[in-house]
Design brief:
The protein is mainly α. It has a domain at 1-41. Helix content is 41%, strand content 5%. It has a two-stranded antiparallel sheet. The mean pLDDT is 77.
Length: 122
Amino acid sequence: MHVSWYEAATATSVLGGAVIVVGGLVIATALVWAVRLGIGVARNEPRTPRSGEHPTPPGSGPVHETHQRREPAEVPRAEETGRRLSPHELGSPGSRPSGDQGRPRWDGDSGGSFGSGGPGGR
């Protein structure tokens, strides 16, 4: 082999490395420019919310939480209707307000939860 081939191979590899470094610098510069442009555009945008953009309370005032007990709507059994109901006949699985709206309380003889470690009853 001739020495000139080694010199040519070295020159092309140095040139290829220089092209990669210059290309990386160009891409990094373009990314920095794009971020700065985006920051400038964001600064110039109005900051006040437009109408309808954010929810507002109703004119009657703020809405408060309500607590109510509900009981499930019972599904008729096959013995009552004489035949099985198909899914489209069931309707929506809704619920209705319970007749007893009092807060649920633990039974006085109950220990609370299963496995609580307490003695349970009295």
